[in-house]
Every structure is written in structure tokens, then in C-alpha cells.
Amino acid sequence: MPFVIDIDPVAFAVIGIPVRWYGLILIAAAAAAIWIAQRGARRRGIDGPTVSDAIVWVGVAALVGGRLLYVVQNELGSFPSDPAHLLMVWMGGLSFYGGLVAGLVALAVFAWRRGLSLMAVLDVAAPAAAIGQAIGHLGCLIGGDSYGVPTDLPWAVVYRNPGAMAPQGVPLHPTQAYEAILLGLLFAGLWLGRERLARLGAGTVAAAYLFGLAAIRFGLFFLRDEPAVLLGLKTAQLIGVGIAALAVALFLAGRRTRDPSVSLSLEATRS
């Protein structure tokens, strides 16, 4: 029997302004990511104010990039008649890869401006990004965003609330839950294995994150109801191939340029 989701995407209203579950869960995801980033940064000798500044840069860039790509891919036809819709992030509708690429660019610029090692910054950000994205996908599950194709599997989900973005009354693959679980496992692997990965070279934690993310997204998009664009693959899968290639390049670069401060900080932490 499929699981029925009949939750109003609007959690409550404040002076007439709707507050959505999607936005509340994004706040929880950001809080978890910030906590993990701060813990990881301390082990690399990066102070708290620097982490806070980086989070602002990445957070703003990810929201703008994620929303822009989502609108371009899904809502470009309706945009000219309602330009304000572009800013309505709280309504749901963010492109995962749009946010990721924009966030990576912002992080690279931030590291350059502050004179920080980009590899070290990426390694700190990787587990934080994984846990934040895992929690964030629970918001997609509630609101019906990023839904899967129809299925008769017993763990299918059926949306009943008219405010949901998914089709009503159709048993669907809960791809949002799949992604949340897989990203949670990716986070656990990165967090528990970060010291071992760091010994392989600077940037290898980030490389493992990007490769794992690309693999998860590539597989799950076979269960997403989106058109293929090239060689039977969907846009997100093609982007995922590029992300995987970037991960391999990052790993190889890190192996050639080991950061001695990493091993020193890890030894200091253990002692």
C-alpha cells in the first residue's frame, strides 16, 4: 500500500505571509551544514568568523544559482509575465546542480580573496554540503518537488494535498527520500573517513563528495520523470558526468600537491 502524503506545503502564516515547510527545512539544513563546517574548519586552523563569511557567500550564490537554473529549465515560458516569481525561492523549485556550481564558484572566489588554500576549503565544505543537501531533500518530499516516475512498489508515495507540486493520486517513486538517504550515507562516509582521505592529498575529501554526488544523481535520474536530451540521458545526468570528471581531476591534483598542514593539524587534534 503506498504511503499517502497529505501535508499542506504551507506550515503556517505570519501576518498573512505563508511560511512553507520547504523553507523551514532549508533553514534546518543550513544550520546542520554550518555546524559541520565549523567543526571541520577548526581541524584545519580556519577561524569561526572566516567560516561564517564563507557560508554567507556560498549560501547566497547557491540560492541564486539554484533558482536561476530551475527557472530556465522549467518556468522560462511564464517568467516574462511574472518577473517577481524568479525571487520566490520559498515557493520551492531549486536546481540542485545550479546551486552546487554557483556555490563552488563562490567558494573559489572567497578562498582566493582571503588567501586560503582552495583545496582545504573544499575539503571542509564537502561533508557540510552533503548533510545539508540530505536534510534539504526532506523538504522536497513534503512539497512534492523532484518527484519520481509512477511505480507499483509498496513504498510508493501518493500526494493528496492540492498544494503539492507532484501529480495528485498517482503512486510515485519517492526519489526525494532515496536521495536524502543516499546523501546521508555519503555524509557519514565522508565524515568518518575524512582523516584517511586527507592523508591521500588535499582536496580528496571534496573529490570523494563530488564523485559520490554525481553517482547518486546519475542513478536516481533514471527514476525522474524528465525528458532525455542526449544519448538517452537527462540534463542532470550529463551534468553529473561533468561533475564526476571534475572529481577525478581534483583527486589527481590533490595527490600531486599534498598539503602538509593537513597531516600536522590532524596529528595535533589527536594529541
Question: Could you please describe the fold and organization of this structure?
Answer:
The protein has 271 residues and is mostly helical. It is built from nine helices and six strands, in the order βββααααβαααββαα. The chain has helices at 21-43, 48-75, 96-114, 118-143, 175-192, 194-200, 204-220, 235-256, 260-270, and strands at residues 3-5, 10-14, 17-20, 157-159, 228-230, 233-234. It has a two-stranded parallel ribbon. A two-stranded antiparallel ribbon has the order 2-3. Strands 5-6 form a two-stranded antiparallel sheet. Helix 1 packs antiparallel against helix 4 (118-143), helix 2 (48-75) runs antiparallel to helix 3 (96-114) and helix 7 (204-220) runs antiparallel to helix 8. The longest helix is centred in the first third of the chain and has 28 residues, at 48-75.
Give a quick rundown of the structure.
This protein is mainly α. The protein is built from nine helices and six strands.
Task: Please specify the SSE layout and strand pairing.
Blueprint: E1 3-5, E2 10-14, E3 17-20, H1 21-43, H2 48-75, H3 96-114, H4 118-143, E4 157-159, H5 175-192, H6 194-200, H7 204-220, E5 228-230, E6 233-234, H8 235-256, H9 260-270
Parallel strand pairs: 1-4
Antiparallel strand pairs: 2-3, 5-6
Helix pairs in contact: 1-2, 1-4, 2-3, 4-5, 4-7, 5-7, 7-8
